[in-house]
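Recall that a protein's primary structure is simply its ordered list of amino acids. Everything else, from secondary elements to tertiary packing, is in principle encoded there. The following example makes that idea concrete.
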Amino acid sequence: MFVEFVIVPIAGCLLFLTAAWRALSALGAALHWSSWVPAAVIAGGAATLLGLGLLHSLREDVRMRRERREQAAMEQRYPGCHVLRLSNGNWFLTERSTGREYQPTEEAHHSFTLGSTRDGSSGWLQQISEDLRASEKSRSSR
C-alpha cells in the first residue's frame, strides 16, 4: 500500500518533471530563451495547481459549513425528529420516539427564514418548503 500510494506517485511526478524539463530546455534552446525559463514554467505550473487545490478545498469548506448550518436549522425546527438530507435535496424527518417518518402538519410550520448565500444556492430549500406547503394545502382541500 505504501508503494502504491507514495512511491509510485513520487516516481511518476519525477518522470513527468524530467520530461517537461527536457522538452522545455530543448524548446528554450531553439527559441534562444534564457536558461531559467524552463524552471519558471514548471514552477508556474506547480503554483497554479497548488492554487487551484487551495481554492477547491476552500469551496468544499464553505459548502460543508452551509450544509451543517442548514442541518442545524432543520434540527432546531423539528426538535423531536432525526433530520436527514436525501440525495435529491429533500429532507427526510424521522420521529425519535417511534422511528417512523414524520409528516409535518399545517400547524407545525414555523416562520423560518433561511440565510442566503451570495450565489443564492440556498434558495432551493425555500422553494422546496413552499412546494411542500402547497402540496399539503392541496391534500387538505381534497
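The two ends are 62 Å apart (CA to CA). Residues 57 and 63 are 10 Å apart (CA to CA).
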